[in-house]
């Protein structure tokens, strides 16, 4: 049976029940395919969905100026992907733009399927203009809100969108089912061509551009020039309960978010449920997602949804984006209200680190019988990784210069000419080395106020960490104050969720700090903020074979090299090994492998047994 879902302008964003217990999602260009000639049992009734993503330049006017920018299907944010837990999605991406792009499915674990994970030169090469590539997005344990975005250059400023994962068919939420939902995507707006600006800055070794405004669902809101007529509005009915699907697609800053007069109950984070947390605001880092319940229980009227930057850099650095982006929650009904929307007086100020710390410290996994935790207890690999700003040397016009860089354990990542996954799978040498260090090369007081200049110079390389299948891993990330440039770092791991078992300030003490670890109900996330001048400890089991990126989700730090790659080897069975590659992968136009493309099958030995 083939079900074709048509678009609907005023959908309620909830599955519509049909005969036989299947579901129809009101989303354009979706095909739900139920395989077989008979009705499958509920445990096997995973659906397959198809989406078309067309990348092309779209004209926008924001902040009284106009520009064109690459988007998906002419929208900012892009289309929402809606699935049930355990479904599979095929997304055919057509690139009608003028440069290469890749797409990453942020928070989707993609079991055994790094081929569709998306980061440029790590698991694939770019989808070049005039070509297309179909991603196979495999959902497994995720439930809640995730997102997708471009993973090449800074293109994700315009190429991003939400993913909503509903409970598996026949099950429900671990809380009362909401009456409706609202997808809220926070983003960054640049008046100019941000990719061109970043390219120039990287070539000269200079700092990267700051955004000109933050945006909510593509609009800066009432407090920005030439914006008030286009502010995003959300209509609610009095007495009903809603779930906000909050996504931070912001490029380079953590954000506070609140709604005037309304409290939140946070029930999910990064595609996993948490113990309900009642709060008047949230703090969310780039890459993170949250599921937030809000009840429409205030007087009929209008209320601002507002976001502003949480700035963890030192107070004397003031050249950050100070825009208060807004949208409007508006009650339906017959009433007259000529007053301005109520602004949330609970929204913390820019430097309110105490509020940020207090909020994050209360996040706990649900950890019950239906949603248990499985924290690794028998650690076989321990790593202590410093995250630092610094400099690297480079040659320009035959002159050796220094430029801004960032690093992990003093190694600043450099993309290879062929993606790491293909080089690894085909056993090609010369594209990466397996010597990413487990420890910093030098130990010093990482969080001192006056770190010596001797520690500023990083080394460049394409160094990866190898892990055996099913190893139990603990990583302590340590923030540093090199160059007097300590700030929070939202660290994101592809292909996995991990448990945040501890965090603190100052230098990690391997004798006393583990005694405070939470091994009972730690949050399970895919992105965690490494605190300014502090540390965070995470654990995970390396049970997903493949090539997986670790990086800071501040794009300026990612561009400067705060990145490494973990390669998890195959287990001993086909079910614990990397899937076969798809019939077509985007070729790497600048690599030696591309030059041999016509005779690759005969000239390159495919090494499938040892990876």
Overview of this structure, please?
The protein is mainly beta. The protein is built from six helices and 36 strands. The chain has a six-stranded mixed β-sheet with strand order 14-13-16-21-18-19, with no helix packed on it. The longest helix has 11 residues. It is globular, with a radius of gyration of 24 Å. The two termini are about 40 Å apart. The N terminus and C terminus are likely disordered.
Keywords for this structure?
36 strands; 611 residues; disordered C terminus; single chain; mainly beta
| Strand fraction | 35-45%
Termini separation comes to 38 Å
Radius of gyration: 24 Å
Q: What spatial order of strands do you see in the largest sheet? A: 14-13-16-21-18-19
Provide mean pLDDT, rounded.
89
What would the principal axes of the Cα set say about the shape? globular
SS content category: mainly beta
Unreliable spans: 1-44, 591-611
E-strand count? 36
User: What count of helical segments does DSSP give?
Assistant: 6
Helix share bin: under 10%
Q: Main sheet? A: 6 strands, mixed
Task: Describe this structure in a few short sentences.
By secondary structure, the protein is mainly beta. 7% of the residues lie in helices and 37% in strands.
């Amino acid at each position: 049976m083939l079900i074709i879902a048509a678009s609907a302008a005023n959908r309620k964003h909830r599955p519509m029940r049909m005969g036989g217990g299947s579901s129809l999602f009101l989303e354009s260009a979706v095909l739900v395919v139920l395989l077989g000639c008979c009705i499958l049992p509920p445990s096997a009734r995973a659906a397959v969905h198809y989406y078309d993503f067309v990348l092309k330049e779209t004209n926008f006017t924001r902040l009284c100026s106009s520009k064109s920018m690459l988007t998906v299907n002419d929208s900012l944010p892009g289309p929402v992907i809606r699935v049930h837990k355990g479904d599979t999605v095929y997304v055919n991406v057509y690139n009608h733009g003028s440069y290469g792009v890749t797409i990453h499915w942020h928070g989707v674990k993609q079991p055994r399927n790094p081929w569709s994970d998306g980061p440029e030169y790590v698991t694939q090469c770019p989808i070049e203009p005039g070509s297309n590539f179909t991603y196979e997005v495999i959902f497994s344990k995720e439930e809640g809100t995730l997102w997708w975005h471009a993973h090449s250059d800074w293109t994700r400023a315009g190429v991003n969108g939400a993913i909503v994962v509903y409970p598996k068919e026949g099950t429900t939420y671990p809380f009362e089912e909401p009456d409706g939902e609202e997808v809220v995507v926070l983003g960054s707006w640049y008046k100019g061509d941000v990719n061109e600006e970043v390219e120039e800055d990287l070539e000269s070794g200079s700092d990267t551009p700051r955004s000109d405004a933050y945006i909510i669902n593509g609009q800066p809101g009432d407090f920005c020039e030439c914006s008030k007529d286009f502010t995003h509005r959300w209509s609610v009915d009095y007495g009903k309960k809603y779930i906000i699907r909050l996504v931070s697609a912001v490029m380079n800053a953590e954000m506070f978010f609140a709604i005037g007069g309304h409290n939140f109950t946070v029930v999910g984070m990064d595609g996993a449920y948490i113990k309900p947390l009642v709060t008047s605001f949230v703090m969310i880092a780039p890459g993170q997602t949250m599921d937030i319940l809000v009840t429409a229980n205030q007087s009929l009227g209008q209320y601002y949804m507002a976001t502003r930057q949480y700035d963890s850099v030192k107070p004397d650095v003031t050249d950050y984006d100070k825009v208060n982006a807004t949208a409007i929650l508006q009650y339906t009904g017959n009433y007259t209200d000529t007053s301005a929307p109520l602004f949330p007086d609970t929204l913390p100020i820019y430097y309110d680190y105490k509020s940020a710390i207090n909020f994050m410290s209360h996040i706990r996994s649900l950890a019950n019988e239906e949603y248990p935790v499985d924290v690794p207890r028998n650690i076989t690999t321990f790593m202590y990784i410093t995250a630092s700003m610094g400099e690297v040397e480079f040659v320009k016009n035959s002159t050796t210069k220094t430029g801004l860089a960032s690093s992990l354990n003093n190694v600043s990542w450099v993309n290879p000419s062929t993606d790491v996954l293909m080089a690894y799978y085909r056993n090609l040498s010369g594209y990466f080395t397996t010597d990413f260090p487990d420890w910093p090369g030098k130990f010093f007081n990482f969080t001192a106020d006056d770190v010596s200049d001797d520690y500023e110079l990083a080394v460049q390389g394409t160094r990866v960490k190898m892990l055996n299948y099913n190893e139990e891993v603990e990583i302590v990330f340590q923030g540093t104050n090199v160059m007097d440039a300590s700030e929070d770092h939202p660290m994101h791991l592809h292909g996995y969720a991990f448990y945040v078992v501890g965090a603190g300030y100052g230098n990690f003490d391997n004798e006393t700090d583990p005694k405070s670890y939470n091994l009972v109900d730690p949050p399970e996330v895919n992105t965690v903020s490494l605190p300014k001048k502090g540390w965070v400890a995470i654990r995970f089991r390396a049970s997903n074979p493949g090539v997986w990126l670790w990086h800071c989700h501040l794009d300026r730090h990612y561009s400067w090299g705060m990145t490494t790659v973990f390669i998890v080897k195959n287990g001993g069975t086909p079910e614990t090994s990397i899937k076969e590659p798809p019939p077509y992968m985007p070729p790497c136009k600048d690599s030696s492998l591309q030059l041999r493309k016509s005779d690759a099958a005969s000239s390159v030995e495919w090494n499938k047994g040892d990876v």
